[in-house]
Design brief:
By secondary structure, this protein is of the alpha+beta class. 34% of the residues lie in helices and 42% in strands.
């Protein structure tokens, strides 16, 4: 995949995230996508990613802004830096109680691209920073 197409794929994925369009997000992923979840392990497969999205929707309303996408020369890897803004809607297991707290965090994601689809996505943000914001 060339750099332009890779950039468009990542931008399409992130725009779908902002719209809450899980079907569009999933259409950007390979069937055996590897998902490295921020400070929470690794899952493999589109079905597990679908479950992850449904769980996130239940607990958070989020969007990314201030997005900068960077793509390797060969188009096989990309990264996105962004600001993650959201609202904590429902208490997630093992985390502080939710009561509609708002948060804003710097974050990033790394991607591998194979055969025109995202084959790995790894997301990073400060969990400690998030907990600090929602606990104030």
């Amino acid at each position: 995949m060339d750099r332009t197409a890779a950039r468009e794929l990542i931008e399409r994925f992130l725009a779908a995230f902002n719209r809450g369009d899980h079907d569009e997000m999933l259409s950007c992923l390979s069937e055996d996508v590897v998902h490295d979840i921020n400070e929470n392990g690794r899952e493999i497969g589109k079905d597990k990613f679908r479950w992850f999205l449904a769980t996130r929707r239940r607990h958070y309303r989020e969007e990314v802004s201030d997005i900068v996408v960077m793509v390797a020369e060969d188009g096989n890897r990309a990264a996105a830096e962004f600001t993650l803004r959201g609202t904590y809607l429902a208490t997630a297991e093992g985390l502080p109680e939710a009561n509609g707290q708002s948060y804003s965090l710097s974050g990033g994601a790394f991607f591998e691209i194979d055969d025109g689809l995202i084959s790995r996505t790894s997301s990073y943000y400060s969990l400690a920073g998030w907990i600090s914001q929602i606990s104030d």
